[in-house]
Structure formats: structure tokens, C-alpha cells
Amino acid sequence: MASRPAQIDVGSSRWRALRQRIINRDGGRCVICGSSERLEVDHIVERADLAALGQADAANDINNLQCLCHACHLAKTTAMRRARANVTQSDRSMDRVA
């Protein structure tokens, strides 16, 4: 399998194979806390962010995927969304100053 596959539909056999490859690569454990329960594969850089940069094909690159447990995945996603909201809010504040 190429390290940079085209967009893959979650639930497809290609995604399931890639997901298993990432879980195996990461030793069947969350790369943050080491748990082996409720494992998920996370896009390190979110797909939407890569698409905005014109790099949507990099979303499923094996170097952009990591194994996280459900709790760590949820925490990471929540933190990223909060950070994105803060940046957006900061940008709006800067527009008012300018």
C-alpha cells in the first residue's frame, strides 16, 4: 500500500486495512496514554485543514495518522476545536483594531 493513498471513505475495506495497519504500527496502543481499549485512528492534521491548504491527498498519509484511544481522541479533538475558535476570535479582534 502506498504511503499516500487517495481519499478513502471511512468504513470501506481500504480504510479498515489502513486503520489496522496504523494500529499495528503503533503497537495496538494509544500513542498518548498507552491504553489498548477503544482504539481509533486519528488524523494528526485534520482533513479539513489539509484540504484548506490544497493538500487533501495527504490526509490519509500514514505519517498523518496515529492510534489514539477514544478518550485521548476526544480530548485532542476538543482542544483543537477550542484552539481554532480562539484563533478565529483573535482574528476578529484584530480586524476591529485595524
Protein topology:
Layout: H1 13-25, E1 39-43, H2 47-52, E2 65-69, H3 70-97
What proportion of the residues form beta strands (DSSP E)?
5-15%
Low-confidence segments, given as residue ranges, are: 1-5
Which structural class fits the helix and strand makeup?
mainly alpha
Total strands: 2
Termini separation:
50 Å
Oligomer: single chain
* Mean pLDDT level: 85
Percent of residues in helices comes to 40-55%
Characteristics:
98 residues; mainly alpha; 3 helices; disordered N terminus; two-stranded antiparallel sheet
Describe the structure.
The chain is mainly alpha-helical. It has helices spanning 13-25, 47-52, 70-97; strands at residues 39-43, 65-69. It is built from 3 helices and 2 strands. It has a two-stranded antiparallel sheet with strand order 1-2. The protein starts with 12 loop residues before the first helix and ends with a helix.
Give a quick precis of the structure.
With 98 residues, the chain is mainly alpha-helical. Helix content is 48%, strand content 10%. The protein has helices at 13-25, 47-52, 70-97; strands at residues 39-43, 65-69.
